[in-house]
Design brief:
The protein has one domain: TIM Barrel, CATH 3.20.20.70. About 40% of the residues lie in helices and about 15% in strands. The protein contains 10 helices and 8 strands. An 8-stranded parallel barrel has the order 1-2-3-4-5-6-7-8, surrounded by 4 helices. Helix 8 links the parallel strand 6 and strand 7. Helix 5 packs across helix 7. The radius of gyration is 17 Å and the shape is globular. It binds phosphoenolpyruvate (PEP). The site of phosphoenolpyruvate (PEP) has 15 residues, from strand 8.
């Protein structure tokens, strides 16, 4: 099976000096991480600086988004090609992108195909709102998000999925490990149905939503949870280092 994956999503937080401080602390930390892949996703503006600091460490760098077109008249946007100079990975379809910036499943599919073209790992985020969960639609929503995002390709080599229930993101109310495992196992089955060549076994499925150093072990002990996408707890380097150390390898 894959290494555990811990991904830090700084969102639209930090200044340049915060980014330098956090990256330097992480790069200097003596982390015994042979069996964990750690990816740091700073704001796009700081990718070059964070890349400079982390380039000789084992930590990888990711972007939080790309545009769905390859290049052109898209003022203010950032392309897959641009980030590919600094990043291994890109987060796609985060619920904040879907809800606030109205990204559709089709946009996320276009971004996934572009990310592949530029040899980037894609972390495709899926998850239901509280209303969808309470009305029993969570699995239907998540399977639609996955099937749409993965359209037009059967090459799932550079794919990771993050199950992030919207109601658990930034709220301090994480899903139970049992509910998270149940959905991550369902996600693996959905991918198995799409591609029967045992690829689903090797696709890292992460849980995200109020993960911290106190609850990380509960999630990474689960059979179908291969790591975590971490927002708030990744902004404090001491807390994030603690979280990494507690991750089941
Ligand atoms: C996220 O940004 O994807 C996230 C899960 O945030 P938090 O850890 O703060 O809930």
């Amino acid at each position: 099976m894959n290494k555990a994956q811990i991904v830090a999503n700084w969102k639209m937080n930090t200044t340049i000096s915060d980014s330098i401080n956090i990256s330097t602390k992480l790069s200097n930390a003596s982390l015994d991480i042979n069996n964990i892949d750690i990816t740091i996703c700073p704001p796009a503006l700081y990718l070059a600086q964070v890349h400079q600091i982390l380039k000789n460490s084992s930590l990888k760098i990711g972007a939080q988004n790309i545009h769905s077109e390859e290049e052109g008249a898209y003022t203010g946007e950032i392309s897959a090609k641009m980030i590919s100079d600094y990043c291994d990975t890109v987060i796609l379809g985060h619920s904040e992108r879907r809800q606030i910036f109205k990204e559709s499943n089709q946009d996320i599919n276009k971004k996934f195909l572009l990310a592949k073209k530029f040899n980037l790992n894609s972390i495709i985020c899926v998850g239901e709102t509280i209303q969808e969960r309470e009305s029993g639609k969570a699995k239907k929503i998540v399977s639609t998000q996955i099937l749409s995002a993965l359209k037009s390709t059967s090459d799932f080599n550079k794919l990771l999925i993050a199950y992030e229930p919207v109601w658990a993101i930034g709220t301090g109310k994480a899903a139970t490990a049992k509910d998270a495992q149940d959905m991550c196992s369902y996600i693996r089955n959905v991918i198995t149905e799409l591609n029967k060549n045992n690829v689903a076994e090797n696709i890292p499925i992460l849980y995200g939503g109020s993960v911290n150093s106190e609850n990380i072990e509960l999630f990474t002990q689960q059979k179908d949870i291969n790591g975590a996408l971490v927002g708030t707890a990744s902004l404090d380097p001491d807390e994030f280092i603690k979280l990494i150390k507690k991750t089941k390898q």
